[in-house]
## 1
Amino acid sequence: MLAEIKGLNEECGVFGIWGHSDAAKITYYGLHSLQHRGQEGAGIVVSDNGHLQVVKGEGLVTEVFNEGKIEKLNGQSAIGHVRYATAGGGGIENVQPLLFHSQNGSLALAHNGNIVNANALKHQLEAQGSIFQTSSDTEVLAHLIKRSGFQSLKDQLKNALTMLKGAYAFLLMTETELMVALDPNGLRPLSIGQLGDAYCVASETCAFDIIGAEFVRDVMPGELIVINDSGLHSEPFTYSTSSAICTMEYVYFSRPDSNIHGINVHTARKSMGKQLAIEAQIEADVVTGVPDSSISAAIGYAELAGIPYEMGLIKNRYVGRTFIQPSQELREQGVKMKLAPVRRVVEGKRVVMVDDSIVRGTTSRRIVTMLREAGATEVHVCISSPPMKNPCFYGIDTSTHEELIASKHSVEEIREMIGADSLTFLSVEGMLKAIGRPDEGNQCGQCLACFTGNYPTEIYPDTVLPHEKELVR
């Protein structure tokens, strides 16, 4: 579903490249392909003859950068970032990459994820004299590195990473090397590619396709990779690892043309749609999906059910961000600016509306209402994931049970609230089977916390609101 409407957003996307004469330009295109992962800010840091320089700003990649700005970013190495603010809030000071200068050189940081013990570490660091320049949890790593007693930056980084809990995919660049680190659970996707003699790193493999790079491999949980002029070097920073990739990357966040751990996202979503059709068993005349992330699942549903797939909902591609705050009445109708039903497709029809998830339920209710107003005789809502009953603390902006309709209402109650004739959620087992990673002895290699409440890491008390603590295991 449309992230702007639904209120389900992922924190950010990262891209880096080492050893290419057009590093800034390549990074710009890489970030553009990752724009869906964050629309609030973008930045690029380039290493130019031993000097790190940064350009960043609030807004979309195309708003922050123009040809003139890119031309000024000379250098053969760069890291970039697109941001959606979940931890630390907005503001230009929180736009990444963060750039730090010291007597020993400069350091640039870009981060995807959320560090669940960031507040505890900040309190500890401030008690030791650290002064934070941002409210971003990313800055914690820089302070931990500088306070490490080890001599080499690599050892300082390894020591600092072991203190972090949660989800993190870090890109760290100095004048002489690019370092890449993924948390011990591998909660966020991160891949290595190669463009000629240059190595590149991206949150999603779709970025490699855009720039013409060849996919090399995924970064492994607990792995530290160092890229410099002598090549790529890898070693673990911890041996205590347990793969738990975020399942919502397959369901919603990642682009359909990306591959995560060898599984194509479009193929996985299409299979989820097929499995959903098996579990739902609904008689209908037409199947439609909510653009854009639900289209693959809707196609799969229609294919297996033998019901025609039609474009019953159209997304307005020209609705951008607005700085004019609407009235409550207009805000309630805001979904109509982004989605519109196709009357000739749904009028007089029994419609299966496939969506990837239900968060608060308000958008689902409005879409069901729109379809009925367009003449649909029945509207059956089918969700290609299980009910989201639990908050996420790893970089998705659902941090309380109060934000999740499924945490306090049954499926039947939700059906009544959104006004659907029927409501079907895909089962956890069916979802894992469709993705291609079935749960064998609870070792599926995926994080299912938002569905099951079983978190792969410890959740620190100051991460959870007081009235939520008894609900989080």
## 2
Amino acid sequence: MDTPRLTTNPFDDDKLREECAVFGIFGADDAAAHTALGLHALQHRGQEATGLVTYDGAEFRAHRALGQVGEVFGDPAVMQRLKGHAAIGHNRYSTTGDPMVRNTQPLFADLEFGGLAIAHNGNLTNALQVRRELVHDGAIFQSTTDTEVIVHLLAQAQGAVTDRLIAALRRVEGAYSLVCLTRKKLIGVRDPLGVRPLVLGRLGDAHILASETCALDIIGAEKLRDVAPGEMIVIDEDGVHSSFPFPPAAGRFCIFEYVYFSRPDSVVEGKSVYKARTAIGRELAREHPVAADVIVPIPDSGVPSAIGYAEQSGVPFEYGIIRNHYVGRTFIEPTDEIRNLGVRLKHNANREVVEGKRIVLVDDSIVRGTTSRKIVEMMRHAGATEVHMCIASPPTTHSCFYGVDTPERDKLLAAKHTVEEMRALIGCDSLAFISMDGLYRAVGLEGRNAARPQYCDACFSGDYPIRLADQEAQPGKSAQLSLLREQAR
């Protein structure tokens, strides 16, 4: 009989998850190795599956599998087969149903002009509608990803590959950063609002496109700049070419990148993520001072904001919770008793720090509230006399449809309860969230301009800057969930 296994995801259900990461390189001696390293640095953006496609001047080679980067590309025989001077790669986090190899990117297709590989971070908000039109016209889909919609639109379009890609993207709506690889080009595109990140870098004579600068750092590359919203970057033997094929629009970069998604050592949209998070903590302390003995981060994402809170408040920062970094993607759970230990698989109270103390727990966000409640219980059990919680983002009241795995809205704690009701459910002595204006101040603005916001903050405000065509057609259902249900009929 097989040993029962359960992924550790249920113990992280208070976190929103970025769905994907992309990486591309052109002009490198060993493109596959550089890409695998870049994907390793971007592992936090997708942990269910990973893939890589290379081109060596004669043929494309691909390897895709479920698992993390080290598992999938740790075999030297796999890497030796992936020869080429150009490559693109992708990390994926599935959002609905079981992860499937057929959904693992990059996707590859032989089109009229030759082979094309494509990898995509984000979500197309009209993917289901466009897909139905394509199926009606005879298209045959092999996956449930919205990325394949772009592939079919490319196949139907006319002209050079860049013309086809522009035509395809003009038919879709949503948030995306994507990379494409052909026999002669590496192409990167951001959606007109620039919701999802994409940076351009250089390593010697090679050029790189990646979701974050930490992927450049790991291979010793330099960042040249962010790819601008609505910009298409084409990299070939003649260098880097830029164009803006879409109507200009005011940028709405995802502000949650600064709160949680990006690695703290990355620089996104010209701002250090680490400095932004410590600034959020300082602003949080100004807005919500607490009489306390110690500031305790909920690791790891709460650490920079807790440092900022401690600096501003003058209350000492201490690691009152120790994280176990060696819990893998699966963990044997033979009994319900072990299952109920829950959060202790990854966190343990540091009793010497919290016993007899009034503590302030600092975390980046609260989604369902289940993990927060368990951590508060853990602190009280360790002897904390008071447990306060300060959250480095406004209440998460709305689902994201732009490339983030978010529960249905009725599962979001802040969508159904006031802050005081949330406090009572979590069991802490006080609960506070940074204000929207405070969050905007922390990233360098005077506050949120409701008439012209400069970031996408839909998960906090319900202000969706891109039309939700599929959601409007089928309220309450994600496009992918609707698609899976259609296929199951």
## 3
Amino acid sequence: MDVGTVTGSNVGAPNGRASVAARLDRIPPCRMHVRISIAAGLANFFDLYDVFLGGVLAAVLATKWHLTTDGKALVIGSGFGGMFVGAVFLSRLADRFGRRKMFIVNLVCYSIFSLAAAFSPNLTWLAILRFLGGFGLGAELSLSDAYLTELLPRAIRGRYISAAYTLGFIGVPLAAFVGAEFVAKHTLLIDGWRWLLVLGSLGAVLVLAIRRRLPESPRWYEMQGQHAQADRVTTELEAEAEAQLGLERLPTPEPIASPPPTTSNLRAIFEPPYARRSAMLWFFQFFQTVGYYGFGTLAPLVLAAKGFHIVSTLGFTAIIYMGYPLGSAGSVPIIERFERKHLITASALIMAGLGVVFGFARVPWLIVTAGFLLTATSNVFSNAFHIYQAEIFPTRIRATAVGTAYSLSRLSGAILPFISVSVLDHLGASTVFIGSAVIMALIATDIAVLGPRSTGLNLEDASDDHEAPASARTSALSAGVGEPA
């Protein structure tokens, strides 16, 4: 059976067949989409685990290795520095050689150097090996955004990507819970903090085995002019969906134009119509780190600065970090009901206010409550922008555009600790979070003024330079997507 054949609406595809975009968008939600999302979410787990592990390690090693202000900043910033370089380099390769290959390269690199970092004899070696491990993870989240965006139908894209991130964010409180347990007991042959790195490395090996079974993005194949491979993978996905749903035949694809095959071009992200979007996203990504990763990585140090013992600090941090997966889960039912740019803007402003409360709070219940609400809100913010940034660029430059912009968050993440830790040590937590609030207000304005709409549109319309036709939004609504607010 030729599931891709369409009579009278074969737009933008060779040999009289519907485009890959049209065929993928008409597949109803099924276990296949869940499987792909879980595989992506499991790998995100280690990226997010490792990012927030930096703050845990800095708090633990501050006393153990007698770290100075710059030493603590180096523990946090070294991983971000590697992620910056990896995001620029590997995301570019993903547009050229494929998403699946870079998925594998990411995890192999991270696993090797994370394991090596567990046996670091001093701060210098820890920083070097954290940098190299970070290089492997650099493109992980942006590449996951591009991959899931290209495979998931538009009607469920936001919900399923949010669910994948929810799975990934379980790694954040786990880093603090496991850290508190191992740091407290110092058991199992080596220091407890070293086991945090070992566990990350071994877990990545297991996820690597799962990821090797993922299909390549058919949209990427189509963009490379590899129509036979694109058709083969799409047909396999269609057949799997039909078998799982008990269908004889999937619905007829809607006419969605396919762009002509082309190669990735870094210059294209600075050309009309994408120059404005790139400028908007570059500003956003460089500064969003202040409110998002800045809080998460600084939380253990802030609590220690407020006078709590290291074990109590990690216990409070673990509770605060529970907001990450719970907030991410809470975003799933609303991510398709509100325009993404509005969610990003509103959640950024709420984060700003809660950060100020956290900075000034002195009693444990208020510190934990404000911190928990901030992390929960931050993952509505995070999930919305991860989906949004992948939707507003076309397949030919998606990984390059998103990865390059996202790399700036890693660059600022590497620089930020040297500023924020110094301010924290000399001026206190309240000053840190007042500054963060101002910056979060600026990035909210950036998205509100310069960002295009994307919710409920098929990927080709959302990434185009003009407003999508009403028919695109109407068909999305008929597929079960609520009218975005």
